[in-house]
Amino acid sequence: MDRPIYIREAAELVTLAGSSERPLTGAKMGELNTIEDGSVWIEDGIIQAVDRDAVIREKYGSRLEDAREVDARGRLVTPGLVDPHTHLVFAGSREAEFDMRLKGRSYMDIMAAGGGIHATTRATQHASKEQLIEESTRRLDRFLLQGVTTLEAKSGYGLSLMHELKQLEAAQELDGQHPIDLVSTFMGAHAIPVDRREQPDRFVDEVIHEMIPEVARRKLAEFNDVFCEKGVFTPEQSRRILEAGLEHGLLPKIHADEIEPYGGAELAASLNAVSADHLLKVSDEGIAAMAEAGVIAVLLPGTAFFLMTDTADGRRLIDAGVPVALSTDCNPGSSPTVSLSLMMNLGCLRMGMTPAEVLTAVTINAAHAIRRADRIGSLEVGKQADLVIHDVADHRGLQYHFGSNHTHTVIKKGTVVVEAGSRIHHP
Ligand SMILES: N=CN[C@@H](CCC(=O)O)C(=O)O
């Protein structure tokens, strides 16, 4: 049996305890439940105790010598960070499009001309599963070094049954190989393939009748996502696809109101979707409907930053009672980043969120957005021991000192996987 781990005496220990039932909304998003001089006791990959250091020492005094002590004095300890929206598994690069965009060509225009998602689809279709795994592992390693311990990964660069399955199988193997836990989303409805544009509904039928049943049968995904956007999938097509997913046990998520207001948030609410993501152009009605239905807003500030557009209004959503999570949207074209820490900075600097709200958005609310809040997202007895020790004294320091990676130590399921900022490889 592994030695117990004793995380010793953090200057600030953010627990987010008591929020596993439902995502935090409104003022609650700013209540982190912190412990000063807090310590954690871990055994068998599970949190056994979270308390002030004096209480932990009293309780485990006789066993302190057996335990591996991880010194957190002077540092901040938080739950492992959760990234609830990525397009992790892909091949190729779209750097050539960067020049075009900098000269004023729009993201959707490039896509309409056969680039964008279509360019990545061509590269991904040509890649072997092994190649996808190798390229994605490099990205996962960088995520881990930034304190991300769980991440959602979408398919959507296959756009045919064979290649969608290949992407999802790659994600499944990565989940088994890498310390980061992956949660898979099927996104066959990411774009209408270039050669199917004349008959979009036939492609929708293929997604509904061929892809969804097979993905569900092979248990390759838990969620089903659609790019509901003018020029991609209409709200009606999106509804059909998401309802078909539900019939096969795949829970709905939506890329909603990213480029234009299009009724995506309203659709998400009417389906009781787990999340509606992007929301740069969400309507007042859409926000009210999401708040009423409890749909989580997964906001992706890296996309607005990289596409040089206005950001989603995090403040407005929180004030309206919508639970908010933040994510990198890691993908090759609109947000080529693995830096959740930069997203946290942007959450404060561009979205009107407080440092505490931002931390909630990348821990417990992000865990809710992938239906994992019963296991991760907070530091509570009985939860999986996923923790990060940050090289700052309190949570505001994470957001204040922007552009730096403050991750010092990462513990995944009770194993130290990053120490003093470097990856530890276990045999
Ligand atoms: N907007 C649609 N899908 C992705 C971008 C995919 C890409 O450009 O490759 C997103 O979430 O931003």
Automatic annotation (TrEMBL):
4-imidazolone-5-propanoate binds at R94, Y157, H190, E258, S334. Gene3D superfamilies: Metal-dependent hydrolases, Urease, subunit C, domain 1. Its EC number is 3.5.2.7. Binds 1 zinc or iron ion per subunit. Pfam families: Amidohydro_1 (PF01979). Zn(2+) binds at H85, H87, H255, D329. Pathway: Amino-acid degradation; L-histidine degradation into L-glutamate; N-formimidoyl-L-glutamate from L-histidine: step 3/3. Keywords: Cytoplasm, Histidine metabolism, Hydrolase, Iron, Metal-binding, Zinc. Its cofactor is Zn(2+); Fe(3+). N-formimidoyl-L-glutamate binds at Y157, N331, G333. InterPro entries: Amidohydro-rel, HutI, Metal-dep_hydrolase_composite, Metal_Hydrolase. It catalyses: 4-imidazolone-5-propanoate + H2O = N-formimidoyl-L-glutamate. It is found in: Cytoplasm. Its main location: cytoplasm. One of its GO terms (molecular function) is imidazolonepropionase activity. Residues 76-417 form the Amidohydrolase-related domain. Fe(3+) binds at H85, H87, H255, D329. NCBIfam families: hutI. Catalyzes the hydrolytic cleavage of the carbon-nitrogen bond in imidazolone-5-propanoate to yield N-formimidoyl-L-glutamate. It is the third step in the universal histidine degradation pathway. Belongs to the metallo-dependent hydrolases superfamily. HutI family. This is Imidazolonepropionase. It comes from Desmospora profundinema. The gene is hutI.
